[in-house]
Amino acid sequence: MANITASMVKELRVRTDAGMMDCKNALNECDGDMDAAVDWLRTKGLAKAAKKSSRVAAEGLVATAVDGAKGVIVEINSETDFVARNEIFQGMVGNVASISLSVDGDEAATRAANFTGTERTVDEEITEMVGTIGENMSFRRSAGLVVDGGVVASYIHNAVTGGMGKIAVLVGLKSTGDVAKLEALGKQVAMHVAATAPLAATEAELDQAVIERERQVLINEAKESGKPDNIIEKMVEGRIRKYLEEVVLTKQTFVIDGENTVEKALKLAESDVGAPIELIGFVRFAVGEGIEKEEEDFAAEVAAVAGN
Protein backbone atom coordinates (compact mmCIF):
# COMPACT_ATOMS: atom_id res chain seq x y z
CA MET A 1 0.00 0.00 0.00
CA ALA A 2 1.29 3.46 -0.91
CA ASN A 3 2.42 5.85 1.81
CA ILE A 4 -0.22 8.60 1.87
CA THR A 5 1.41 11.87 2.94
CA ALA A 6 -0.16 15.08 4.21
CA SER A 7 1.02 16.91 1.08
CA MET A 8 -0.80 14.38 -1.12
CA VAL A 9 -4.00 14.87 0.86
CA LYS A 10 -3.62 18.65 0.59
CA GLU A 11 -3.05 18.48 -3.19
CA LEU A 12 -6.17 16.37 -3.67
CA ARG A 13 -8.20 18.73 -1.50
CA VAL A 14 -7.06 21.71 -3.62
CA ARG A 15 -8.01 19.86 -6.82
CA THR A 16 -11.43 18.70 -5.63
CA ASP A 17 -12.41 20.88 -2.64
CA ALA A 18 -13.50 17.68 -0.90
CA GLY A 19 -13.03 17.14 2.85
CA MET A 20 -9.63 16.19 4.24
CA MET A 21 -10.78 12.78 5.50
CA ASP A 22 -12.54 12.12 2.18
CA CYS A 23 -9.33 12.93 0.32
CA LYS A 24 -7.32 10.63 2.57
CA ASN A 25 -9.84 7.82 2.09
CA ALA A 26 -9.80 8.33 -1.68
CA LEU A 27 -6.01 8.10 -1.83
CA ASN A 28 -6.03 4.96 0.30
CA GLU A 29 -8.70 3.39 -1.93
CA CYS A 30 -6.68 4.27 -5.06
CA ASP A 31 -3.26 3.31 -3.66
CA GLY A 32 -1.99 6.89 -3.89
CA ASP A 33 -2.94 7.45 -7.56
CA MET A 34 -3.94 11.14 -7.63
CA ASP A 35 -6.01 11.08 -10.84
CA ALA A 36 -7.80 7.91 -9.79
CA ALA A 37 -8.54 9.50 -6.42
CA VAL A 38 -10.09 12.51 -8.16
CA ASP A 39 -12.33 10.16 -10.16
CA TRP A 40 -13.19 8.20 -6.99
CA LEU A 41 -14.32 11.41 -5.27
CA ARG A 42 -16.34 12.45 -8.31
CA THR A 43 -18.00 9.03 -8.40
CA LYS A 44 -18.95 9.38 -4.73
CA GLY A 45 -20.27 12.88 -5.34
CA LEU A 46 -17.73 14.41 -2.98
CA ALA A 47 -16.00 16.64 -5.53
CA LYS A 48 -19.14 18.55 -6.49
CA ALA A 49 -18.46 21.34 -4.05
CA ALA A 50 -15.65 22.74 -6.18
CA LYS A 51 -17.92 23.12 -9.20
CA LYS A 52 -20.63 24.82 -7.17
CA SER A 53 -18.50 27.04 -4.96
CA SER A 54 -18.79 30.03 -7.30
CA ARG A 55 -22.56 30.20 -6.87
CA VAL A 56 -23.86 32.79 -4.42
CA ALA A 57 -25.27 31.21 -1.26
CA ALA A 58 -27.44 33.91 0.29
CA GLU A 59 -30.39 31.83 1.52
CA GLY A 60 -30.32 29.25 4.31
CA LEU A 61 -30.97 29.37 8.03
CA VAL A 62 -29.88 30.97 11.26
CA ALA A 63 -30.19 28.83 14.37
CA THR A 64 -29.84 29.32 18.11
CA ALA A 65 -28.75 27.03 20.92
CA VAL A 66 -29.18 28.19 24.52
CA ASP A 67 -28.20 26.70 27.85
CA GLY A 68 -29.23 28.93 30.75
CA ALA A 69 -26.88 31.89 30.81
CA LYS A 70 -25.10 30.97 27.58
CA GLY A 71 -26.33 31.06 23.98
CA VAL A 72 -25.07 31.04 20.39
CA ILE A 73 -26.32 31.82 16.89
CA VAL A 74 -24.96 30.25 13.70
CA GLU A 75 -25.70 31.08 10.07
CA ILE A 76 -25.38 28.48 7.34
CA ASN A 77 -26.20 29.60 3.83
CA SER A 78 -27.54 27.79 0.79
CA GLU A 79 -28.36 28.90 -2.73
CA THR A 80 -32.13 28.49 -2.45
CA ASP A 81 -34.81 28.78 0.18
CA PHE A 82 -36.01 25.34 -0.91
CA VAL A 83 -32.94 23.74 0.69
CA ALA A 84 -33.62 25.60 3.94
CA ARG A 85 -36.81 23.53 4.18
CA ASN A 86 -34.92 20.27 3.69
CA GLU A 87 -34.94 18.20 6.90
CA ILE A 88 -31.40 16.93 6.27
CA PHE A 89 -30.12 20.50 5.95
CA GLN A 90 -32.06 21.55 9.05
CA GLY A 91 -30.59 18.66 11.02
CA MET A 92 -27.09 19.70 10.03
CA VAL A 93 -27.71 23.33 11.00
CA GLY A 94 -29.08 22.24 14.38
CA ASN A 95 -26.02 20.08 15.00
CA VAL A 96 -23.67 22.94 14.12
CA ALA A 97 -25.52 25.19 16.59
CA SER A 98 -25.12 22.59 19.34
CA ILE A 99 -21.44 22.17 18.54
CA SER A 100 -20.96 25.95 18.56
CA LEU A 101 -22.59 26.14 22.00
CA SER A 102 -19.87 23.87 23.36
CA VAL A 103 -17.22 26.41 22.28
CA ASP A 104 -19.17 29.55 23.28
CA GLY A 105 -19.89 30.48 19.67
CA ASP A 106 -16.25 30.87 18.65
CA GLU A 107 -16.30 30.69 14.85
CA ALA A 108 -12.84 29.19 14.27
CA ALA A 109 -13.36 26.60 17.00
CA THR A 110 -16.77 25.68 15.60
CA ARG A 111 -15.39 25.20 12.10
CA ALA A 112 -12.59 22.98 13.37
CA ALA A 113 -14.71 20.90 15.77
CA ASN A 114 -15.68 17.34 14.89
CA PHE A 115 -19.15 17.09 13.43
CA THR A 116 -21.37 14.84 15.54
CA GLY A 117 -20.95 11.14 14.74
CA THR A 118 -18.19 11.62 12.15
CA GLU A 119 -14.43 12.09 11.89
CA ARG A 120 -14.98 15.19 9.77
CA THR A 121 -14.80 18.78 10.94
CA VAL A 122 -17.86 21.02 10.67
CA ASP A 123 -16.40 22.68 7.56
CA GLU A 124 -15.73 19.28 5.98
CA GLU A 125 -19.24 18.06 6.79
CA ILE A 126 -20.74 21.08 5.05
CA THR A 127 -18.54 20.43 2.02
CA GLU A 128 -19.80 16.85 1.94
CA MET A 129 -23.39 18.07 2.29
CA VAL A 130 -22.90 20.10 -0.90
CA GLY A 131 -22.39 16.85 -2.76
CA THR A 132 -25.34 15.22 -1.02
CA ILE A 133 -27.91 17.97 -1.55
CA GLY A 134 -26.52 19.39 -4.78
CA GLU A 135 -26.06 23.12 -4.29
CA ASN A 136 -23.50 25.44 -2.78
CA MET A 137 -23.51 25.94 1.00
CA SER A 138 -21.30 27.76 3.44
CA PHE A 139 -20.88 28.20 7.17
CA ARG A 140 -20.92 31.98 7.24
CA ARG A 141 -20.58 32.96 10.90
CA SER A 142 -21.32 32.25 14.53
CA ALA A 143 -21.44 34.32 17.70
CA GLY A 144 -22.03 33.70 21.37
CA LEU A 145 -23.39 35.56 24.38
CA VAL A 146 -22.62 34.67 28.00
CA VAL A 147 -24.09 36.25 31.13
CA ASP A 148 -22.46 35.90 34.54
CA GLY A 149 -25.56 35.45 36.65
CA GLY A 150 -28.80 35.78 34.71
CA VAL A 151 -30.21 34.44 31.46
CA VAL A 152 -29.69 34.46 27.72
CA ALA A 153 -33.07 34.54 25.97
CA SER A 154 -33.64 33.76 22.30
CA TYR A 155 -36.21 34.50 19.63
CA ILE A 156 -36.60 33.16 16.09
CA HIS A 157 -38.57 35.16 13.52
CA ASN A 158 -40.05 33.33 10.52
CA ALA A 159 -39.18 29.99 12.11
CA VAL A 160 -39.17 26.98 9.79
CA THR A 161 -38.68 24.54 12.66
CA GLY A 162 -37.63 24.63 16.30
CA GLY A 163 -34.72 26.99 16.99
CA MET A 164 -34.07 28.09 13.42
CA GLY A 165 -35.47 30.44 10.84
CA LYS A 166 -34.71 33.68 8.96
CA ILE A 167 -33.90 36.04 11.86
CA ALA A 168 -32.41 34.94 15.18
CA VAL A 169 -31.77 37.06 18.26
CA LEU A 170 -30.06 36.50 21.60
CA VAL A 171 -30.48 38.90 24.53
CA GLY A 172 -28.48 38.72 27.75
CA LEU A 173 -30.03 39.95 31.02
CA LYS A 174 -28.05 39.92 34.26
CA SER A 175 -30.14 39.59 37.42
CA THR A 176 -30.62 37.51 40.55
CA GLY A 177 -34.39 37.70 40.13
CA ASP A 178 -36.97 35.10 39.09
CA VAL A 179 -35.45 33.14 36.22
CA ALA A 180 -38.73 32.30 34.46
CA LYS A 181 -39.87 35.92 34.50
CA LEU A 182 -36.44 37.06 33.39
CA GLU A 183 -36.51 34.64 30.45
CA ALA A 184 -39.97 35.88 29.42
CA LEU A 185 -38.78 39.48 29.57
CA GLY A 186 -35.63 38.59 27.63
CA LYS A 187 -37.71 37.01 24.88
CA GLN A 188 -39.80 40.18 24.60
CA VAL A 189 -36.64 42.27 24.24
CA ALA A 190 -35.34 39.78 21.66
CA MET A 191 -38.58 40.16 19.69
CA HIS A 192 -38.07 43.93 19.81
CA VAL A 193 -34.50 43.55 18.50
CA ALA A 194 -35.71 41.34 15.66
CA ALA A 195 -38.18 44.04 14.63
CA THR A 196 -35.99 47.14 15.00
CA ALA A 197 -32.44 45.91 14.25
CA PRO A 198 -30.60 48.36 16.56
CA LEU A 199 -26.93 49.07 15.88
CA ALA A 200 -25.87 48.86 19.53
CA ALA A 201 -27.26 48.02 22.96
CA THR A 202 -26.23 51.34 24.53
CA GLU A 203 -24.92 54.68 23.31
CA ALA A 204 -21.51 53.87 24.81
CA GLU A 205 -21.28 50.75 22.62
CA LEU A 206 -22.18 52.56 19.40
CA ASP A 207 -19.19 53.16 17.15
CA GLN A 208 -18.28 56.83 17.47
CA ALA A 209 -17.31 56.90 13.80
CA VAL A 210 -20.94 56.08 12.96
CA ILE A 211 -22.15 59.01 15.05
CA GLU A 212 -19.64 61.42 13.55
CA ARG A 213 -20.51 60.35 10.02
CA GLU A 214 -24.19 60.96 10.76
CA ARG A 215 -23.34 64.31 12.36
CA GLN A 216 -21.43 65.44 9.28
CA VAL A 217 -24.31 64.49 6.99
CA LEU A 218 -26.72 66.46 9.18
CA ILE A 219 -24.39 69.49 9.27
CA ASN A 220 -24.13 69.51 5.48
CA GLU A 221 -27.91 69.25 5.18
CA ALA A 222 -28.48 72.05 7.70
CA LYS A 223 -26.03 74.39 5.93
CA GLU A 224 -28.19 74.18 2.83
CA SER A 225 -30.87 76.04 4.79
CA GLY A 226 -28.65 79.12 5.07
CA LYS A 227 -29.24 79.42 8.82
CA PRO A 228 -26.55 80.81 11.19
CA ASP A 229 -23.97 78.41 12.65
CA ASN A 230 -25.37 78.64 16.20
CA ILE A 231 -28.82 77.61 14.95
CA ILE A 232 -27.31 74.85 12.82
CA GLU A 233 -25.50 73.48 15.87
CA LYS A 234 -28.74 73.23 17.86
CA MET A 235 -30.54 71.66 14.91
CA VAL A 236 -27.83 69.04 14.48
CA GLU A 237 -27.70 68.13 18.16
CA GLY A 238 -31.46 67.66 18.21
CA ARG A 239 -31.30 65.42 15.17
CA ILE A 240 -28.43 63.42 16.66
CA ARG A 241 -30.57 62.74 19.74
CA LYS A 242 -33.35 61.59 17.44
CA TYR A 243 -30.91 59.38 15.53
CA LEU A 244 -29.71 57.73 18.76
CA GLU A 245 -33.31 57.02 19.70
CA GLU A 246 -33.64 55.14 16.43
CA VAL A 247 -30.46 53.02 16.51
CA VAL A 248 -29.60 52.44 20.20
CA LEU A 249 -31.58 49.62 21.82
CA THR A 250 -31.99 51.16 25.28
CA LYS A 251 -33.21 54.45 23.77
CA GLN A 252 -35.74 52.89 21.39
CA THR A 253 -39.45 52.84 22.20
CA PHE A 254 -40.25 49.31 23.38
CA VAL A 255 -42.45 47.77 20.69
CA ILE A 256 -44.17 45.55 23.26
CA ASP A 257 -45.82 48.45 25.12
CA GLY A 258 -45.36 51.27 22.59
CA GLU A 259 -44.80 53.85 25.35
CA ASN A 260 -41.61 53.39 27.35
CA THR A 261 -38.06 53.16 26.15
CA VAL A 262 -36.45 49.74 26.45
CA GLU A 263 -34.28 51.11 29.24
CA LYS A 264 -37.34 52.25 31.21
CA ALA A 265 -39.25 49.05 30.49
CA LEU A 266 -36.41 47.03 32.00
CA LYS A 267 -36.41 49.29 35.06
CA LEU A 268 -40.17 48.91 35.50
CA ALA A 269 -39.83 45.11 35.23
CA GLU A 270 -37.46 44.94 38.18
CA SER A 271 -40.32 44.92 40.72
CA ASP A 272 -41.90 41.93 38.98
CA VAL A 273 -38.62 40.05 38.57
CA GLY A 274 -37.62 40.84 42.15
CA ALA A 275 -34.14 42.25 41.54
CA PRO A 276 -32.23 44.83 39.48
CA ILE A 277 -31.83 44.00 35.77
CA GLU A 278 -28.82 44.82 33.61
CA LEU A 279 -28.87 44.50 29.83
CA ILE A 280 -25.61 42.75 28.95
CA GLY A 281 -26.02 42.83 25.19
CA PHE A 282 -27.63 41.24 22.17
CA VAL A 283 -26.76 39.37 18.98
CA ARG A 284 -28.95 39.56 15.87
CA PHE A 285 -28.40 37.51 12.70
CA ALA A 286 -30.61 37.73 9.61
CA VAL A 287 -30.10 35.23 6.80
CA GLY A 288 -28.06 36.65 3.94
CA GLU A 289 -27.76 40.19 5.31
CA GLY A 290 -24.89 42.00 3.61
CA ILE A 291 -24.42 39.35 0.91
CA GLU A 292 -24.56 40.74 -2.60
CA LYS A 293 -26.98 38.54 -4.49
CA GLU A 294 -26.71 37.91 -8.19
CA GLU A 295 -29.55 39.41 -10.19
CA GLU A 296 -30.69 36.98 -12.86
CA ASP A 297 -31.75 38.32 -16.25
CA PHE A 298 -33.90 35.51 -17.59
CA ALA A 299 -34.45 37.17 -20.95
CA ALA A 300 -30.72 37.63 -21.45
CA GLU A 301 -30.12 34.01 -20.48
CA VAL A 302 -32.63 32.77 -23.05
CA ALA A 303 -31.10 35.02 -25.71
CA ALA A 304 -27.62 33.69 -24.94
CA VAL A 305 -28.78 30.09 -25.25
CA ALA A 306 -30.45 30.95 -28.56
CA GLY A 307 -27.21 32.43 -29.82
CA ASN A 308 -28.44 36.03 -30.06
Strand line-up in the sheet with most strands: 3-2-1-5
Q: Identify the CATH architecture of the largest domain.
A: 2-Layer Sandwich
Helix share, percent? 40-55%
Topology as a string of helices (H) and strands (E): HHHHEEHHHHEEEEHHHHEH
Task: Describe the overall structure.
The protein has 308 residues and is of the alpha+beta class. It has three domains: 6-52, Ubiquitin-associated (UBA) domain (Helicase, Ruva Protein, domain 3), CATH 1.10.8.10; 59-203 and 248-286, Tetrahydropterin Synthase, Chain A, CATH 3.30.479; 207-247, GTP Cyclohydrolase I, Chain A, domain 1 (Orthogonal Bundle). It is 48% helix and 18% strand. The protein has 13 helices and seven strands. The strands form two sheets. The protein has a four-stranded antiparallel β-sheet with strand order 3-2-1-5. A three-stranded antiparallel β-sheet has the order 4-6-7, with helices on one face. A hairpin with a 2-residue loop joins strand 1 (59-67) and strand 2. Helix 9 packs antiparallel against helix 12 (262-273). The longest helix is centred in the C-terminal third of the chain and has 19 residues, at 229-247. It is elongated. The N and C termini lie far apart (55 Å). 38% of the residues are buried. The model has no long low-confidence stretch (mean pLDDT 87).
